[in-house]
Write a structure and sequence with these properties.
The protein has 194 residues and is of the alpha/beta class. The chain has one domain (5-180): Nucleotidyltransferase, domain 5 (2-Layer Sandwich). Helix content is 39%, strand content 20%. It has helices at residues 16-19, 50-58, 68-77, 92-100, 106-114, 122-130, 134-158; strands spanning 5-12, 29-36, 41-46, 62-65, 89-91, 160-164, 170-174. Strands 3-2-1-4-5 form a five-stranded mixed sheet, with helices on both faces. A hairpin with a 5-residue loop joins β6 (160-164) and β7 (170-174). α5 crosses α7 (134-158) and α6 (122-130) runs antiparallel to α7. The longest helix is centred in the last third of the chain and has 25 residues, at 134-158. It is globular.
């Protein structure tokens, strides 16, 4: 049975400063970048494309992201007709935080673990949106998805990832992630009429 996991990342049109509060639900999505294991494809979904993305999320065995439970999923929730928290998910940052006791940036993990990092920062993505540079926005988001997927793959294989601490010393942290047993998962239908 093919893997049906999904790696995703979102970018927004605005910032917490724009909405006056640290509340991801108040932000507007500009693009969602997704890697589908089932088809081995990277795809981008702008706001108007989200209805075609939901059934694919619902059929997935697991949604995988970095700070996805704290940011991406709450932000996307206002666009989704069901409850995204009912879908199985894995937040790599949350898993690392459980082992380390503190949060660490995706770029720090990717640089130390893979030797490659993100192509920029989130505020750059907001700027791309405001300037109408949608191809740059899409490319930026999909690069984050690729980096997240590669960190996830590394953790699956090695059961650990690396990061440089505040002193610049390379540290290794256990990250015992297991692949999803697809025979024990079932698709969820929350967005389609019943």
């Amino acid at each position: 049975m093919p893997r049906r996991e999904v790696v995703f990342d979102i970018e927004t049109r605005n910032t917490f400063q724009d909405v006056g509060a640290y509340n991801p639900a108040l932000l507007q999505v500009s693009v969602v970048g997704v890697y589908f294991y089932e088809t081995d494809t990277f795809e981008a979904f702008f706001e108007e494309d989200l209805p075609s993305m939901w059934p694919r999320f619902e059929r997935s065995d697991r949604l995988i992201g970095y700070n996805s439970n704290g940011f991406d999923i709450p932000c996307l929730q206002s666009y989704y007709p069901g409850d995204l928290t009912n879908l199985p998910s894995l937040d790599l940052m949350f898993e690392l935080q459980k082992h380390l006791g503190f949060r660490i940036k995706l770029d720090d993990v990717a640089q130390a673990t893979l030797g490659v990092g993100k192509s920029g920062h989130g505020l750059q993505a907001v700027d791309f949106w405001k300037k109408g540079e949608l191809e740059k926005l899409k490319d930026y988001c999909l690069q984050d998805v690729k980096v997240t997927r590669d960190v996830y793959e590394y953790a699956l294989e090695h059961k650990e990832v690396k990061f440089n601490d505040r002193m610049g010393q390379l540290q290794t942290v256990s990250l015992p992630i297991d692949p999803v047993d697809a025979s024990q998962t079932s698709a969820v239908n929350l967005s389609l009429g019943i």
